[in-house]
């Protein structure tokens, strides 16, 4: 195949340019002729109006005599109009005025004679339709002044020449491309770039050839399917990593100054346990010394940088695990204000936040021996309803973070504002969160001074002791109540400022989601959770049961004080009072040093026996009562087994007894048990024995007796038949 001749290219450009100039000249001529006709028509109309206005005497198609006749008719008849005058002239036809004077003599025939010409009448009618000649003849209007005569345009203009030059360049490029394709040549790759005439031709048609070459190059870049954005990010990241690795770029020392301040204390469903304080940050001198020792070698990363979202609302888990974290700012691979975890504690960090099985990716940073770790988390579906507009974005971000850090659980958040809850989703795999709402219709309000350690003064709803599980913070404030997969936030978190709201809201959601995802009726797991606070509960239990001894101690102390008063006031009975005081002191010493210690040991053993009892799930002691949560009660009857529910046994310090079913499975009845109604049991023949045990504070035996009572059923005198409860196969 022969190469494309440069002379063919030049000829194509010459033909294209000539064609463009010829077309431009032809269009210029047409426009010149068209504009000349418009100028002539405008000039003719303006001259005609000037005749009617009386400004010129030049006749135009016999128009001057007709205008004089109209002026004369307007002078003699005030009601005359141009339209009427033309109608009168039209009625004369071709008759001569002298003929009409012979038949009906009248001076108007001579006046109307110049208007009998049809061309004159059509001209006047056209002018009257556009310019209203009545005002011209009667009021002296000047419509001719509104008519502007345009200037005659040139055949050629610089701008048009430039446009047609561009058109010629385009036609040249098209002809050149078609000619190249016919010869099976590439118009750019096979062009004779080594020829001077070719370069001159391409330069002459530069407005078309240069953009074509650039467009072809851009198209080739995109057609190659090169991921430029990824390549650029990979190149810049690789350059930064190599630069820091080979010490071409100077790395910064670890910018860790002090441990991050704890945002919230730990929580528990009942009473929060104390959390260890984070270990202190390494001193700057120690870090510099360590960096100096490792300057010549690389023993792996010393710090892992973690995104703040991984810690949001879960700082207490790190505090419980004793894993310190420190604030840090990095610039590579992204500018980020985050937290740093020592490489030696990263396994503890991942276990504490349940990230041990999560996929992680590490990136080099601009800080020596510091690695940015990214965890790949899945975010479930989220829905936000009835949240104020100023809080919507913040709440949505926090819920997305909680979902990502909770194995992608789907969460629906609805702000109820104290109203009764109504479901917003129908799928079973969603967890519904109702903010400022309780699971019961009748709500009692209170105030909270803190929520998970964040000082505040917010409105809150008292929880219902009969429904689900209650999550309390370290101060004993009821914050969340969970019933199945519905989480009720009992306090108004929107009253917090924007600085504390994200962490506290995330903490509340984590606690609620954790409880909702776990089986609330898993006895072993809940018992293990309660036993984590066994020491604190034992102390509360002993304190409650020591009230009798403490009451006697207080009475003896008051007696000593009274005797001392008698000694001061009654000099005659000093000897007797001193003796009594001495005896009381001995009694007090015996109570404090012997009987009280003996009683403490006995009560501790009694509490351990009660906590170790098979039916007992959890034991809690308060100032005026003791609460015992039992395992799920199953009652056999007539070869069948019925799941009654889990009970909370409450015994107050006066011997009062209450049995509440926390997970009642009954339908069609309001009873908690076939023999328990309104929390009051019908004890039957065990009433006397149980009263004696309660009076003597033998709670372990009393709870065992009550659990045997709950597992029994007497069909002769129940409050409700056992068939109302759920039948189980196990």
Q: How many β strands by DSSP? A: 23
Q: Please, how many domains?
A: 6
Radius of gyration: 52 Å
How much of the residues is beta strand, in percent? 15-25%
**Largest sheet entry:** 7 strands, mixed
Shape summary: elongated
Query: What is the overall number of helices?
Result: 22
**Spatial order of strands in the largest sheet:** 1-12-13-14-9-8-7
Quickly give the structural class: alpha+beta
End-to-end CA span: 91 Å
Mean pLDDT: 79
Describe the structure using short key phrases.
730 residues, alpha+beta, 6 domains, five-stranded mixed β-sheet, 23 strands, elongated
Structure description:
This protein is α+β, with helices and mostly antiparallel strands and 730 residues long. It has 22 helices and 23 strands. The chain folds into six domains: 91 residues, no CATH class; 116 residues, no CATH class; 119 residues, no CATH class; 139 residues, no CATH class; 73 residues; 116 residues, no CATH class. Helices cover 46% and strands 16% of the residues. A seven-stranded mixed beta sheet has the order 1-12-13-14-9-8-7, covered by helices on one side. A five-stranded mixed beta sheet has the order 3-4-2-6-5. The protein has a four-stranded antiparallel beta sheet with strand order 15-16-19-20. α9 packs across α10, α19 packs antiparallel against α20 and α20 packs parallel to α22.
